[in-house]
Amino acid sequence: MAIWEWALDAYSRPGVPQAALALQDEHGQNTSFLLWAVHAEAKDPELLARAAQAARDWDATALVPLRAVRRALKPALPPFADHARESLREEVKGLELAAERLLMETLDAMAHRGGGAHALEALEAASAAWGRPAPANALAELAAALG
User: Fold this and answer.
1) Closest C-alpha to 38, from 19, 25, 61
2) Sheet strands (E) in the chain
3) Contact, 29 vs 134, CB < 8 A?
């Protein structure tokens, strides 16, 4: 299964969105990078370091700015019409998803699936490569939700 289809399926599982967003918002992780690592079964430190750098660059260039705009458009903003603001917010959300997909597909092209790491092992290795590792319990929660 292609990375994006796998990620959409994984993200639809109970508990995955909450665990992934907690890792992103509370612990500064990149959920696309983490999900890619699980899909790739990645544990090679050199590969993870290169992938983390690519993800950090893309975060700064595209994902963080798009997420900030999407979140800023959530509350009402008089005198702008709610339906127009919400429509624009949905367009920005689509761009944010497209940026996440591009990141995951780019990372997927960097490595072949089958690095041998189980979900929790891949999450721990990816989180460490990202920089400040997330708490073990937060990573374990995502691994458990992914199945």
Assistant:
1) 19
2) none
3) yes
Pick from 111, 117, 62, 66: which is nearest to 88 by CA? 66
pTM above 0.90, yes or no: yes
Token code pair at residue 62: 């595209």
Stated length of the chain = 147
Q: What pLDDT, in 10s, does the model give residues 81-94?
A: 999 999 999 999 99
Measured distance CA(123)–CA(82) in Å, rounded? 39
Ranges of the chain whose pLDDT falls below 50 = none
Residue 93 and residue 101 in contact, taking contact as beta carbons nearer than 8 Å: no
Token pair of 141, please?
Answer: 């929660």
Residue reference for tokens 């367009």: 91
Residue 29 token pair: 């992780």
Amino acid at 132: R
Q: Give φ, ψ of 144 to 5 degrees.
A: -65, -40
The pLDDT of residue 111 is: 83
36: nearest Cα among 121, 103, 95: 103
Alpha carbon 78 to chain centroid, angstroms? 32
Structure tokens at 144: 């458990």
